[in-house]
Structure formats: C-alpha cells, structure tokens
Design brief:
Blueprint (H helix, E strand, L loop, with lengths): L3 E5 L9 E5 L6 H13 L2 E8 L6 E3 L5 E3 L2 E7 L4 E7 L6 H17 L4 E9 L9 E5 L5 H5 L16 H12 L3 E9 L6 H15 L6 H21 L14 H9 L22 H15 L15 E4 L4 E4 L10
Helix pairs in contact: 1-5, 2-4, 5-6
C-alpha cells in the first residue's frame, strides 16, 4: 500500500462542518470526548485513513473479523452545527509521519468544506485533579473571545513545551491552510483515563459550537475511575497493590496487551517491577521508564527518532516513545 491511503466509505453533504479531532493522548481525554460525541449523535462513518505510520497490526472484532488499523472520520449533525469527527487508536510513529498524516486529515476536512477545526486533548498536571479547567490555544487571537466565553482559560506559556502530535499540528498547519483552528485541553493527572476531563472539554466545545449532549455514560465511567483513584491513593499511602484485574481502566494495560505478542518477555504483572515501582500508578511507572530509556538512548521529550530494533510505541505524557523491552528492565532501581 501507499504511505497514506484514504478510503471513501460514504458520501454525505455537510453544511460547513467543523473538524473535531480526538486521537489518543494524555488521559485519553480527546479520544473519550470524540467517541462520546459519536455515541450520542450516532455519527456516520464517511472516511478511513490508512498509513504505514500506524503500528503493523489489525484489530479483531467480537466476530473474529480483522481490520487493518486506521483513523476514521464520522459525519455528525447536531442541533446547530455539522461536525466532522476524527477518531482512531494511534498517532504517527515519526516526526515526518505526523506532518504527512495531519496534512491528509486536513485534505479530508477541506473536501467536506470545513474551514474551522478543534483538536481535543489533555494537559498533564502531575497530580490528581479536583476542579477541572480547560486550557485553550488558537491559531489567531480573534478566536479567543468565543472560547473565553465558554470558560476556556489562556495561560502564558502553557502547556509547557507546547502541543505535540496531531493536535498541535492541526492548529499550526491548519492556520497555514486558512483554517480557524483551536485546541481545547482538559487538565488531567496524566496517570489515568480521565472521563471527567473529557466532559469538561466537551462542555466547552458544545458551548462554542451550539450543541448539547447527555453525559450519563461518561459519568458512569467517571465513577469507575473514582474507585481506581481511591485504590491508587491507598497504594501510594502504603496500602496493598492494586489487583491485576483492576488495571483494565488504565490506558497502559491496553497498550501493553497490544505490544505483548511482538515483544518476548513483556510484563503485565506489576509485581515483577523493581520494589521502587510497585506503589506508583501504573502509567507513571512506564512514563518514568520511557524517560529513562530516552536518556540512555540520547532522546529527549518531543523526539520520535530512534535507532532501536523492533520498537514498541509507548505513550508518555509528552509524546509517543519508540522503545524496546530491554530498555525497561529493572526500571528505577
């Protein structure tokens, strides 16, 4: 196949739609928000985007049918606005790939007549969040008032280090192509999948674009996460380690399960980590491991370049790191 291929699934007419991006990132905030939007409005799949920048794998559904991994565009028609919602399970594996695939995403949006785009995501605080704030970034200062009216905050030099991945490039490249583009980022610990932050982001987006959704299912997930947070706090205070079956709510377990078949010796059981790691939140452990591997490999936050054989993509609070299991042995001893 070519480096990037776009499949037409359905043709539908939209009235000046707004592109809404929700790919995986910190706390899966953007992904949760975008998928909730699709569930509530029964979005119609219109395009699939395939690229060699995605991991070499297929997804398998409940019937055992495999499908090549891809990103998807869904058409959503709300009360006051048409949306083109971009979702998926992966981002690109290289710096060049991020630019190329973002250009392809913007090509699809332009073909549907979109001239406005919002990227959804999370910004890590490094600690558990009680009051959720949404931070904003825009391609033009003239776009700020509408977001500020929706209680979106603009803080100097935040997020620190800028916005990486597709979310950042949609704003930067979108601006160069004439899009009115912005990024809405919900504060989140960075340790866990965060439905509450996703809700805060969706509420701000809905106020700006003029739609309203029910948050019942997100509230249920938030209650589940509250239980997990309580157990993590207990672990950090010296309590017993969290049972393995309760790691299912933490995004890292899903990443590990996907990586395990191709990486001999990859460990899911936290008891096999060094003692210093066993009472840390699981996502924090592997984020720290990624940092250590990055230092030993001469990498730095924001870089996606690596000379490592058979890399596995690990999502950290900064970016996606290509590192291999031998870099993670006995972490943080």
């Amino acid at each position: 196949m070519k480096d990037i291929e776009i499949e037409t699934v359905a043709d539908i007419s939209l009235d000046h739609p707004t592109l809404v991006e929700g790919l995986p990132g910190v706390g899966h905030v953007g992904k949760l928000a975008a998928e909730h939007l699709l569930d509530e409005y029964d979005g119609e799949l219109v395009r699939r985007v395939y690229t060699t920048e995605f991991p070499p794998q297929v997804s398998v559904d409940d019937d055992g049918v495999a499908e090549l991994t891809c990103a998807e565009f869904h058409a959503v028609q709300t009360e006051d606005a048409d949306l083109l919602v971009l979702t998926g399970d992966h981002q690109a594996a290289s710096n060049d790939g991020h630019y190329q695939i973002t250009e392809a995403f913007l090509d699809v949006a332009e073909a549907f007549g979109a001239t406005r785009a919002y990227a959804l995501g999370g910004v890590p605080t490094g600690e558990l969040v009680e009051e959720y704030t949404v931070l904003g970034a825009v391609s033009d200062a003239a776009l700020k008032p509408a977001l500020e009216d929706a209680d979106v905050e603009f803080r100097p030099d935040e997020p620190a280090g800028g916005i990486v991945g597709v979310s950042g490039l949609l704003v930067g490249l979108g601006d160069r192509r004439g899009f009115d583009a912005g990024c809405l980022m919900g504060e989140t610990s960075g340790y866990l999948v965060d439905p509450k932050s996703a809700r805060a982001v969706l509420e701000a987006l809905g106020e700006v674009l003029g739609f309203d959704v029910d948050f019942g299912s997100l509230e249920e997930r938030a209650e589940e996460m509250e239980e997990v947070v309580g157990k993590i706090q207990e672990m950090q205070d010296g309590g017993p380690a969290m049972p393995d079956d309760e790691l299912r709510y933490i995004g890292w377990r899903q990443i590990l399960q996907r990586a395990q078949p191709s990486v001999p010796g990859l460990v899911l059981d936290s008891s096999r980590l060094s003692p210093n790691c066993q009472r840390l939140p699981v996502q924090h452990v592997f984020s720290r491991c990624a940092q250590r591997a990055a230092r030993t490999r001469g990498l730095f936050p924001g870089s996606l370049e690596s000379q490592i054989d058979s890399p596995v993509l690990w999502e950290t609070r900064w970016n996606l790191w290509p590192i291999s299991w031998d870099s993670l042995s006995n972490p943080l001893e």
